[in-house]
Amino acid sequence: MRDLRIVFMGTPDFAVATLKALVENHYNIVGVITAPNRPAGRGRKLNESAVKQYALSQKLNILQPTNLKDESFLNDLKSLNVNLQIVVAFRMLPKAVWHMPEYGTFNLHASLLPNYRGAAPINWAIINGETTTGVSTFFIDDKIDTGDMILQKSVSISSEDNAGSLHDKLMVLGSQLVLDTVELIKEGNVKTIPQKVTKEIKTAHKLDKDNCKIDWNDTINNIYNKIRGLSPYPGAWCTLINKEDTFTVKIFKADKEISKHTLAIGTVLSSKQELKIATKSGYIVIKEIQFPGKRAMDIKSLLNGYHFDSGAKVL
């Protein structure tokens, strides 16, 4: 049985669940590496990462390097005599860091690799209409999410799931997978398999303004999946034209209504209770929307104070 000295690397809430599981299962965490404090909010107050906040509460040793290749940081890391590193939702590591521990550096990724390598695997699984996804652990190498696989666990995606609810499912599943992986490493029983590379591999591209825009000429299912795949963050957007108003709106929640009609695609229909948008094979029924400078609101609250003209449309 190996005596593990673990350094954990991570930043957001998704990583906290795993760090918490390691602490509560009494693993020896000799260091936690997380992002530097960032200014946030109107007052530009320095904001600590979710991982740092939890690490502080557990009195863990914290490092916040700005440059992972910096010699002083590498010396600090070596001084911890780490023999295993665990990475969850962090940044790409230089070889000098991931190659350091005797038992390697492994990463938790929120997809069934080799599919959805990249920055936004949870979002793209839903956007692409997948019904199953999962979590994977693998030893890090010099490319992104390509290292030899250790373990995987799958989970179903319901038609009502959005990126937020799937994030929470995978966060819990992933923390357990990391515990299982660490136990194999502790016992010296890890058996890895190379990732199979095929032409059909799907990629989790970084989300940007262009790929978050709704194409109302797309199929109703693809539009519906894009809305839930980008909710609650960063939000699927489109341009609303209503009389003299032209501005960007974000749609966070919607239903789909399959029906025949003769309306132009993008036509907005509104009543006192409902707002829906014409697509090729029916309507996207808006449930939650955000106007510029406003908070997201349910559609009934919006319709109480905002009027849509008969010629309103979205682009």
Order of helices and strands: EHEEEHEHEHEEHEEHEHEEEEEEHE
How much is the average pLDDT?
A: 95
Global morphology = elongated
Distance between the termini: 61 Å
* Order of adjacent strands in the largest pleated sheet: 5-2-1-6-7-9-10
* Major sheet: 7 strands, mixed
Counting DSSP E segments of at least 2 residues, the number of strands comes to 18
* Name of the CATH first level of the largest domain: Alpha Beta
Structural class: alpha/beta
- The CATH architecture of the largest domain can be given as 3-Layer(aba) Sandwich
The CATH superfamily of the largest domain bears the name Formyl transferase, N-terminal domain
Q: Calculate Rg over CA atoms.
A: 23 Å
Number of domains: 2
Contiguous uncertain segments of 5+ residues: none
Proportion of residues in helical segments: 25-40%
The helix tally amounts to 8
User: Beta-strand level of the residues, as a percent range?
Assistant: 25-35%
Task: Briefly note the CATH topology name of the largest domain.
Answer: Rossmann fold
